[in-house]
Design brief:
Number of helices: 3
Structural class: alpha+beta
CATH architecture: Irregular
Radius of gyration: 16 Å
CATH topology: Factor Xa Inhibitor
Shape: elongated
Number of strands: 3
Helix content: 25-40%
Largest sheet: 3 strands, antiparallel
């Protein structure tokens, strides 16, 4: 099958890092939660544990890598 007709594949590295919400927005986890946690306050670690939405300028780039979202 020619490449122009073939479906685009999901980029697995992107699929592991981002999820789509029910309304179609892109969700991500926050950085700085992996190591060196003793030096961070409990309040800061709690805030980092929550997810957030991807900035509008990056959404189209990410959704192109998640064609079956």
């Amino acid at each position: 099958m020619p490449k122009s007709i073939a479906r685009s594949k999901t980029r697995k590295t992107v699929a592991k890092r981002f999820k789509l919400t029910a309304t179609g927005r892109v969700k991500r986890t926050r950085a700085s939660r992996r190591h060196l946690l003793e030096g961070k306050s409990a309040k800061r670690k709690r805030k980092l544990a929550k997810g957030t939405l991807v900035h509008d300028s990056d959404v189209s780039r990410i959704t192109r890598c998640l064609p079956f979202g």
